[in-house]
Specification:
This protein has a five-stranded mixed β-sheet. The chain has 91 residues and is of the alpha+beta class. It is built from three helices and five strands. The relative contact order is 0.23. Helix content is 33%, strand content 30%. It has one domain: RelE-like (YaeB-like fold), CATH 3.30.2310.20.
């Protein structure tokens, strides 16, 4: 099991995301729970980013919304960085 580390930026973005997308609250909670259990589950679509974001990974909430994160395998930590639309989190 991994520990989810909520950064201040992620906390702000998550609160804003939930306010704007109330219909996805349950899906977000399930995604975070699954991420905590095993970030490599196929339905999360875990993937490494490229270019200037190559040190960051992402998982999908839905086809349109992502969570960016960093997985620290040695410490079994997942540092949550941002949440939002595909174009927003890859800036």
């Amino acid at each position: 099991m991994y520990e989810l580390v909520w950064t201040a930026g992620f906390t702000r973005a998550a609160n804003k995301f939930v306010d704007q997308h109330r219909e996805l609250r349950t899906k977000l909670a399930a995604t975070l729970r699954d991420l905590e259990n095993d970030p490599f589950q196929p339905h999360l679509r875990y993937h490494h980013l490229t270019g200037k974001l190559k040190v960051i990974q992402a998982v999908s909430i839905t086809h349109s919304y992502r969570i960016t994160l960093t997985v620290m395998i040695t410490d079994k930590e997942i540092i949550l960085l941002d949440i939002g639309g595909h174009g927003d989190v890859y800036r």
